[in-house]
């Protein structure tokens, strides 16, 4: 029996959604409401056949969800609200509580709220999204899908920071990792495409977008990941620095009299590709500038690739080898140049990319003689969310 499942991603001023027919995974409608709370919010709705776009004032998330549900009915995408069989919500932080997605109930809501301390910008707005849907669709089950849950399989040696113990014991400061839904989806898809159980593979996933993270997967479990206590750490990103010498922070704070919030903004919003190139946070813009001869843009691209290579290298050491490397996210899925730069000179590992397949964004881009498979897999977090709703709220596999 097929079900209509809604996958929701609520941000501070936006609401992204997909309505999927499951278990087929058929996209019925997707959309985005942007600039919620501002004078001119923009509502975009798309079905495979049609697109609607309009601008209007939307005061808050409650109004946004109400409007979205009304539009689904008025555009005859659903006949009534009862057509929606389940709702899945992306939630940023599940702390050490959630090792898997969870059915939304009072306990789940209380925990998400408690964990807001660890993700103050995201968990509260995710919670708001869940509550608004619960009010408008009181009889429809919902599931919270956590960015961190997939990484709860990390060993202590991968998640403990070498700080005084009480920071972990009393404040929960440890590596959590993010992008878990994407890492899980693309690694499962790879195993399916290869016809091999994921448990038999040693995989590194490179999720490269505005935010980027890597994940090492062994015996089907995440065993390491590059983002940490927050999504700032690890590889270099669009505007985030990734790992740097931590002493730089107090040094800059003292020299420039910056507050912790200002330092946070510097590292999260002004660094990475943008900071080094001085051109843009967007990989395509930086590529263009590099091609036009801008040396800092060229350096930014090199740094981006080198930091990823270093991380992949450490994961190969940890896993004792590598069977497959996966590229996903806007950059990973589309930039042949990024993939080539990351995979250069790895024949000693048995990894070689076929440049023609790479240029075509083929699913498998390794050379025929390469022992290590190199895959380009489009991520689909919404489908993973919908599958979790089917499994957890409706007891059906998808
Ligand atoms: P987010 O982390 O916000 O979800 P995306 O996964 O959408 O980000 O990735 C955005 C990044 O992908 C941008 O840096 C963008 O320049 C890059 N990107 C998208 N398409 C291409 C392309 N064809 N070639 C190179 N980079 C691309």
UniProtKB/TrEMBL annotation:
Can you list the GO cellular component terms from the UniProt entry?
cytoplasm
What superkingdom heads the lineage?
A: Bacteria
Question: Quick one: which pathway?
Answer: Polyol metabolism; 1,2-propanediol degradation
Q: Where in the cell is it found?
A: Cytoplasm
Q: Does the keyword Calcium apply?
A: no
User: Which EC class does it fall in?
Assistant: transferase
HAMAP family per the UniProt record, alphabetical: Acetate_kinase (MF_00020), Propion_kin_subfam2 (MF_01882)
Protein name, entry field:
Propionate kinase
């Amino acid at each position: 029996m097929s079900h209509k499942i809604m996958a929701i991603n609520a941000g501070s001023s936006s609401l992204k959604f997909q309505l999927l027919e499951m278990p087929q995974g058929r996209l019925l409608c997707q959309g985005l409401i942007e600039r919620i709370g501002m004078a001119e919010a923009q509502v975009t709705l798309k079905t495979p056949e049609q697109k609607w776009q309009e601008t209007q004032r939307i005061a808050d998330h409650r109004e946004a969800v109400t409007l979205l549900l009304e539009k689904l009915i008025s555009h005859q995408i659903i006949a009534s609200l009862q057509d929606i069989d389940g709702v899945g919500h992306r939630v940023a932080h599940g702390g050490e509580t959630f090792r898997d997605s969870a059915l939304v109930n009072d306990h789940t809501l209380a925990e998400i709220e408690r964990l807001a301390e660890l993700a103050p910008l995201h968990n509260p707005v995710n919670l708001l999204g869940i509550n608004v849907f619960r009010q408008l669709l009181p009889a429809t089950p919902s599931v919270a899908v956590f960015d961190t849950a997939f990484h709860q399989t990390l060993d202590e040696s991968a998640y403990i920071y070498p700080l005084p113990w009480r920071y972990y014991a009393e404040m929960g400061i440890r590596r959590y990792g993010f992008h878990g839904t994407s890492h899980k989806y693309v690694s499962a898809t790879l195993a399916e495409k290869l016809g091999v159980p994921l448990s038999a593979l040693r995989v590194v996933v490179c999720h490269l977008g505005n935010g980027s993270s890597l994940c090492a997967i062994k015996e089907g479990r995440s065993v390491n990941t590059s983002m940490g206590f927050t999504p700032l750490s690890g590889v270099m990103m669009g505007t985030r620095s990734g790992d740097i010498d931590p002493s730089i922070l107090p040094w800059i704070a003292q020299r420039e009299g910056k507050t912790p919030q200002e330092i946070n903004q510097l590292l999260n919003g002004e660094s990475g590709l943008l900071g080094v190139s001085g051109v843009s946070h967007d990989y395509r813009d930086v590529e263009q500038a590099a091609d036009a001869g801008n040396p800092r843009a060229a350096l930014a691209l090199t740094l981006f690739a080198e930091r990823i290579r270093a991380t992949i290298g450490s994961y190969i050491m940890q896993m004792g080898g590598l069977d497959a490397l996966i590229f996903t996210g806007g950059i990973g899925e589309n930039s042949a140049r990024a993939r080539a730069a990351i995979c250069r000179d790895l024949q000693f590992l048995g990894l070689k990319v076929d440049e023609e397949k790479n240029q075509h964004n083929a699913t498998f881009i390794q050379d025929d003689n390469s022992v290590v498979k190199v895959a380009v897999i489009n991520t689909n977090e919404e489908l993973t969310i919908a599958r979790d709703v089917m499994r957890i709220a409706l007891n059906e596999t998808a």
